[in-house]
Amino acid sequence: MAPERGSILVVEDDAAMRDLLTEELADAGYAVESTGGASVGLELSRANRFDLIITDLRMPEMDGFDLIRGVMALPDPPHVVMITAFGSIETAIRAVKLGAYDYITKPFEIEELLLAADKALGERQLRTKVARLQREVEERFGLGNIIAKSQSMRDVVGLVQRIATSTASVLVTGESGTGKELVARAIHYNSTRAKGPFVGVNLAAVPEGLIESELFGHKKGAFTDARTDKPGLFVEADGGTIFLDEIGELALPLQAKLLRVLQDYEVRPLGATKNQRVDVRVVAATNKNLEAMLADGSFREDLYYRLNVIHLDLPPLRSRPEDIVPLAEHILATLGARQAPPRRMRLSPEAQQILLAYHWPGNVRELMNVLERGIALCQGELIADDDLPQAVREKRPVDFLGAAVARRMTLAELEREFIERVLDDEAGNKTRAAQRLGLDRKTLYRKLDEYARSGPTSPRPGTPVPDE
User: Fold this and answer.
1) Neighbours of 315 (CB within 10 A)
2) E-only strand ranges, 159-304
3) Antiparallel, parallel or unpaired: β 276-277 and 266-267
């Protein structure tokens, strides 16, 4: 028997027709239930999740129109195909207006009905897939996916929440790799425009001669290679959000045209004679200093203030060490789930310390690349320090106090780790270590004895050697 292709309810008061439809649909691979009355069919629909209902129009007590009305009131209504011997244009229009997907008039060939069922179920599966992908996207770019242990990032998340219902333009600034597009998507998917499109463009990646056509569209024949009409990204984003990344790369002539669009919310495609209204929210981003560009005349002041209604400045990763380990764990969970088979990746204590100590010039993007490499190199599910790139292990402009705060260390723990690190740095020589620490040797020995009795905090590289 063919695998089930979907579940169908047949509602037909003619027993012979009902049995024929049930048998043919079952042979085609569908899971089929049937009933002779619309009222029973409605109850079955409420109790079960059918993908499709095939119903007659004229039935005693309750007709097919009433069944459609009841079915369409369900939370996730199935598609409906109506079959009847009383076909007319008016009946078809009424059925479709009530929510029917298709309409077939008796007499019909069974292949015609099977084709209608296949089309209806294919469209429903596509709609379900799109809805699922929409939910996944919204979950992926929800505020819960922005790691915000640090106060600076909590402030960012709080501002995103506050501006969610606004239509005001947003300017997102920050170093490369800080997550400007992630924040832009979070703004969109937590706004009232979440069901509309999110359209992003990296202006630095589009040749200057094509940006106007890319943003505003063109008509066929507007220039040599314009063989068809093109709507442009502003039109594609109608009802949603357009994300203009690397806005600082936009040339001055195009800045003037963008300003006009933001003032009037109308675009005129190249070669067109009329403007077209658009309803979009604009989120722009840059890693450049736009204030300095205003001063040297390379960025228009009026465009800057039009974009900078709400300003979000993303802090670099090095300035928020509290977020490094939670962010790494989040990235590892995401990347590990994509492995075949999935792996529950973790960081060793030594690897965590290396990540906390590193300066992260490439910010979150660099952290993601480092962790992806670690997953590829480690043998199991624990990323050790030697699974990390040598550049990360060696280049440690250490913010020791910042790392200690991020790890929520007590003063006693901080003292112990500092003493042990100095001792390691002196290759275990207690005399030199005591001198550097400003302690006499007896005090250092006493503290080391206390640490030995309390047990190690975590394995440390380096093996102490005897005193000189």
Assistant:
1) 18
2) 170-173, 198-202, 241-245, 266-267, 276-277, 281-286
3) antiparallel
Per-residue pLDDT band at 377 (split at 50, 70, 90): very high
Average pLDDT, the chain: 86
* % pLDDT > 70, the chain: 90
Q: How far apart are CA 389 and CA 74, in angstroms?
A: 55
Name the residue with higher pLDDT: 93 or 44. 44
Is the pTM higher than 0.90? The answer reads no
> Taking a C-beta distance cutoff of 8 angstroms, is the pair 101, 81 a contact?
yes
CB 421 within 8 A of CB 414: no
Give per-residue pLDDT as tens, 388-423: 999 898 865 455 676 777 677 888 888 888 898 888
Task: State how far the Cα of 160 lies from the Cα of 190, in Å rounded to an integer.
Answer: 8
Helix (H/G/I), strand (E/B), else coil: 35: strand
Angle CA 378–349–178, to nearest 5? 80
d(CA 385, CA 374): 9
Burial 335-369 (b: 16+ CB within 10 A, else e): bbeeeeeebebbbbebbbbbbbbbebebbbebbbe
Query: What's the pLDDT at 147?
Result: 85
| Closest alpha carbon to 421 in 457, 386, 391 | 457
At 184 the pLDDT is 94
Q: How confident is the model at residue 429 (pLDDT cuts 50, 70, 90)?
A: confident
- Angle formed by the axes of helices 89-98 and 64-72, to 10°? 20
Paired with 103 in beta bridges are 82
- Cβ atoms of residues 387 and 345 within 8 Å: no
Q: Using the predicted structure, report yes or no on whether residue 302 has a pLDDT greater than 90.
A: yes
| Complete domains list, the chain, with CATH | 7-135 (3.40.50.2300), 145-315 (3.40.50.300), 318-394 (1.10.8.60)
Rama region for 92: left / alpha / beta (φ>0; ψ in -120 to 50; rest): alpha
Q: How far apart are CA 203 and CA 200, in angstroms?
A: 9
Spatial CA neighbour of 124 closest among 193, 53, 74, 57: 53
